[in-house]
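Subject: design request, 184 residues
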């Protein structure tokens, strides 16, 4: 602690800067010292400074050249990418148009196939109806024929005696025999 107080006490022994005066001591003045130091630095440091500036200039120029080359490369890549994009867009449009036309073709083919199927079903239905009508007509004819035959047999049995019946059967057998000879 004594050292700290001693330092404050010693401040009291410093002379006061009461007035401004001109210092005639040339070596003690800063402008002359600075000019000498600057002169020495310029004389001896001129080459080093020029080399440093030239190196810096070359690095800057090299960086600019590299940047220009990179920019040109990037521009070329951009143009190639744009050309590729245009090509892909044209192919996509072509695929889209082909896809739409293919879809339309498939739609038309499906409609045509459906119409053909409907037409076949309609024809099958008509054939089935015609067949069923013919079968119904044949059944009705058969029943009418059977009923007519039964009525005729009933009439013949009631009207015929056994001799007439025997002659009728013989005549029919003769007709059937003649028909058989004609067909052979």
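Subject: RE: design request

Done. Sequence follows.
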């Amino acid at each position: 602690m004594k050292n700290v107080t001693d330092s404050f006490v010693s401040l009291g022994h410093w002379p006061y800067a009461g007035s401004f005066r001109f210092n005639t001591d040339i070596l003690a003045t800063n402008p002359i010292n600075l000019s000498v130091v600057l002169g020495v630095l310029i004389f001896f440091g001129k080459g080093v400074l020029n080399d440093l500036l030239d190196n810096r200039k070359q690095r800057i120029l090299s960086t600019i050249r590299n940047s220009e080359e990179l920019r040109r490369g990037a521009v070329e890549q951009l143009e190639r990418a744009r050309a590729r994009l245009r090509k892909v867009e044209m192919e996509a449009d072509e695929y889209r148009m082909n896809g739409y036309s293919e879809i339309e073709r498939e739609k038309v083919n499906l409609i045509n196939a459906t119409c053909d199927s409907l037409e076949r079903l309609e024809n099958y239905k008509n054939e089935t109806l015609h067949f069923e009508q013919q079968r119904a007509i044949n059944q009705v004819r058969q029943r009418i024929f059977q009923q007519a035959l039964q009525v005729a047999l009933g009439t013949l049995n009631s009207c015929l005696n056994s001799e007439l019946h025997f002659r009728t059967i013989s005549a029919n057998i003769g007709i059937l025999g003649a028909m058989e000879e004609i067909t052979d």
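Residues 30-159 form the longest helix (130 residues).
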